C-alpha cells in the first residue's frame, strides 16, 4: 500500500465511522420519541401486529370515534372528557384540558396524543380532528370499518 | 367545449415535450445543426400550449363551469373571484398542472436567457428539461386530468374550496413553493448535461449559479409564507409543526442551501465539483420525493386531503427513474470530473465543506424522521409517529457547530489561512457577541434559560463576525465608508444572507423559550391578566360574510393599565360545507405578537379562548425574507449580468 492509498483508506474509514456513530445517535434519539398508534381495542387487548399492550405512563397516540353522549365538561374550566370507541366494541376514556379542534364532534373520528393513565384512561395533551368534512385519517378509518354511522372516505368517487 | 380544448392543448404540449427531449439529443449525436437549434423552438411552443391549458382551466374556474369534475369538487359560485382563481391549485390535479406550467416557464427562461452558452449545451439542458416535463405530462394526462367532465349529471353548484385554503397566504404559498421545487430542475438539468458532456468547469458553475439561486429564493419565500400561514390560519399559534409535508419542503431547502454554497466554491476555486453535481441531483430528487410524499397519500398529515395510490405509484416509478438514472450517469461519468485546486486544512473551503456536511446531516435527520413511520407501517409493525422533541433536539444539536462555522468561515482566506491572523478577529467577535447577548437577554427576557443563552449567542456571533468581516474588507484599502461602497453585490449578498440567518435563529430562540400560552374559559365582561397585559372580553358580535356566518369576539388590551389596542377574533361557519373556521386576532409587533383565537362556545354562553404572547416571532419570517433578498442581490452581481439583457431579473 502506498502512502496515498493509506491516507485515503484512513479518511474513508474515518468518514464511515463518523457516519455510523451519528446515525446511531440519531436512531437512539428516535427511539425515545416514537409514539405508537393504538385503537381502543388495541389498548385493552394489545396491538394487532405484535400483541403488545401499552405500559401505564407510556406516551402514545390513540384514534377512534367519539362516542355519542360521552362528552363531559367541567363547569369552571376547560377540562373535558370523552369516550373513544372502535369496531372492536371497547371503550377508552380520554381526558383533556384545553381547546378542542373546530371539527371535534360526537360521532366523528379523532386522534389524540397523550399518556396512558391506567388500563382504559388517557390523559391527552393534544387532540386532532380531521381537516375537512370527508377526510378521515387512514389509520383511524381502518379501525372503524364496518361500524354503523361511519362512512369511509368518499371524496374520490364523487 | 373549452375543457376539451384545454385537454387537447395539454396533449399537444406533451408531444412537444417528447420532441424537445429526443430531437436535440439526436442532433448532438449526429451533428445535425437544425435539430440542435430546434430545442428552443420546441421549448417555447410547449410553453405556449401548456399556458393555454392553464389559462383555460383558470377561466373555467372563473365562469363556474361545474360540468368539470375538478371545478365542481373545489369551487363554488359563492366564492369570491380571487379564491376561485387560487382554487385552480387548491387540490391535486390543478397543482400538478401548475407544476408542469411552471416547469415550462423555467425551461423557456433558460431557452431565452442563456444566449452566452454554447448552443449545444443549451440543447442538452433543454432536452433534459423536456424529459422531465414529459414525465409530468403523462402523469397529469393519465392519472390526474383536471379537465374531466361530470356529464351528464353535473351538480348545480360546487362543493367549495376547503375554507382553510381560502386565504391570501394560500393564493401565493403554493406557486412560490412550486417555483422553488421546479426551479431546482434547472440546476439538475445543468448538472446532468455537464455530466453527459463530461465538462464541469468554472464556467459551468457560473451558468448554473444564478438559476439555482433563483429557485432557492422562491423555495425560501414559499416555506416562510407557509409557516406564516400556519401561524395565523390554523389557529394553534405554532409556526412549524414538523409535519411530514413541511419536512418535504425543508429537505430540498437544506440541500439547496448546501448546493448554492458548494457552487460558489466550484466557481471561485474549481474544487468540490463532483460534490456539487451530487448535491444538484439530490436537491431535485428531494423535491420529487416531496411531491411523492404529499401527493401519494402515504402520509398522515394536515395536508393529506384526498389521495389516490395509483398516483403514488406513478410518482414513485418516476422518482426511481430520475434518481436511479442520474446516479447511474454520475457513477459512469463522475470519475471524469476532476477538481484541480488544492486547499489546506485551515481554509475557507474546509469550513464550507464542514457546513455542507452539517446540512446533509440535518437532511438525514429529517428524512429519517419523515420516512421511518412509513417503513414501520410497511413492515407490519403498526402505525407510529415521530414526536416533535426528536427534531427539536437534533436541530438544536446541529445548529451549534453550524452557526459557529458559519460565522467564522467568511473571516478565513481561501486556500490557506495562517492561524495566528485569526486570533484577533475571533477574540474581538467573541467578546462583542457575549456582551450583546447578555444585554439583549437582560432587556428582553424575564428569566434565564441555558437554551436561550446559547441560541441568542449563536445569533450574535454571526452578527458580529459578519460585521467584523465587512469592516476588515472595507478598510483594507480605503476608509470605512468608501470601502463599503466599493464592495460587490455578491459580497453584500453573503453578509445579508448570513445576517438573515442570525435573525432567524434569534427569533426561533426567543419564541420557543419565552412564549406564554393560555387556554381559558372566558365570558363577555370578564378579564384575564397575562404578564403585564390585561385582556377584557368586551363584546360578542354576529358576523356575516360572503360565504360564511359566525361570531366575533372583541377584546380590549391594556398594558400596565394603559389601553393599547382592540383585537377582533372570529369564529366562522362556512355555509357550503358547514365547516367551522377560526380567524385569529393578532396584534403584531417587532418584539412581540399578541394572539387571540376563539375556541368554541360552551353551554353557559362563555367561550373557550386561547391567548398567546409570542416574543420575536416576526423575526422568524423576517430572517428568511432577508435571506431571499440577499439571493436576489447575488443574482444582480455584475458577473452574472449580460451586456444586452438583464438576465435574471426577468424571471
Q: What's the quick description here?
A:
With 158 residues, chain A is of the alpha+beta class. Chain A contains three helices and seven strands, in the order H-E-H-E-E-E-E-E-E-H. The two termini of chain B are 33 Å apart.
In the predicted model, the low-confidence regions of chain B spanning at least 5 consecutive residues are 301-306, 643-651
Rg calc of chain A: 22 Å
Strand element count of chain B: 10
Number of helices of chain A: 3
Strand content of chain B: 5-15%
Q: Supply the CATH superfamily name of the largest domain in chain A.
A: Nucleic acid-binding proteins
CATH class of the largest domain in chain A: Mainly Beta
Strand order of the largest sheet of chain B: 3-4-5-6-7
Strand neighbour order, sheet with most strands of chain A: 2-4-5-7-6
Radius of gyration of chain B: 26 Å
What's the CATH architecture name of the largest domain in chain A? Beta Barrel
Q: At the first level of CATH, what is the class of the domain at 1-166 in chain B?
A: Mainly Alpha
Assembly state: heterodimer
Q: By helix and strand content of chain B, what is the structural category?
A: alpha+beta
SSE blueprint:
The complex is a heterodimer of chains A (158) and B (651).
Chain A lengths: L2 H30 L1 E5 L1 H6 L13 E8 L5 E2 L5 E7 L5 E7 L11 E10 L2 E9 L8 H7 L14
Parallel strand pairs in A: 1-2, 5-7
Antiparallel strand pairs in A: 2-4, 2-6, 3-4, 4-5, 6-7
Chain B lengths: L1 H29 L2 H30 L6 H6 L6 H6 L5 H22 L5 H25 L24 H30 L4 H32 L10 H26 L3 H24 L12 H25 L14 H31 L5 E3 L1 H21 L10 H26 L5 H25 L5 H7 L2 H26 L1 E7 L4 E4 L2 E12 L3 E12 L2 E13 L4 E5 L1 E3 L4 E10 L5 E9 L2 H18 L16
Antiparallel strand pairs in B: 2-10, 3-4, 4-5, 5-6, 6-7, 8-9, 9-10
Helix pairs in contact in B: 1-2, 1-6, 2-5, 2-6, 5-6, 5-7, 6-7, 6-11, 7-8, 7-10, 8-9, 8-18, 9-10, 9-12, 10-11, 12-13, 13-15, 14-15, 15-16, 15-17, 17-18
